[in-house]
Amino acid sequence: MRVLVVEDEPMLADAIAEWLRDESHAVDIAHDGGAALDRIAVHDYDVVVLDRDLPVVHGDDVCRRVVASGAATRVLMLTAAAEVTDRVDGLSLGADDYLTKPFAFPELAARIHSLGRRCRPAAPPVLRRSGVTLDPARHEVFRDGRYLPLSKKEFAVLAELLRADGATVSAEHLLEKAWDEHADPFTGAVRLTILKLRRKLGDPPLVETVTGVGYRLR
Fold it and tell me: Can you give the residue ranges of the OmpR/PhoB-type domain (predicted)?
């Protein structure tokens, strides 16, 4: 998934981002509400992890803007404001979930996974096609019973291809979902990752190139 972490404490923001990247999410960071709105206007985020007490633009206003946009983006408020009234206020603004600090990283990751499922069409917990089985929860991939040791990017790209269920997926979509905002669209990162993924999947070939359009699984 593509996740935006909006947190004005750089060390905490970096720690959250590192944890989520280890789970193959593409993660961007904003340290104030204004920067968050700038990124949301450009990128199609699945989930925004949002602190409330932000500089420049308050987190509540960021949440209002996301909700008013009508986008499928889900908002998880992550804040030190732990009173019941605080949680009620946050959810009343349109936030999809509310987690108070201090928190456990595994719980945060589980909540993000849950929100991510809500912003996509329903899909089975384990993805299967053409002998390939991908388990997002266990971060495991098998082809015809053979375990495939994929990198984080290879795993994320394969997951998007499996979710498409045979439809063609553009390189732009893969770049949007599997890389963060620092990725250079002209580096050929998607093409290189597809090449490595093909090698690991083995024969017969499964990933087709649709010239001028993108990639699909047979």
Answer: 124-218
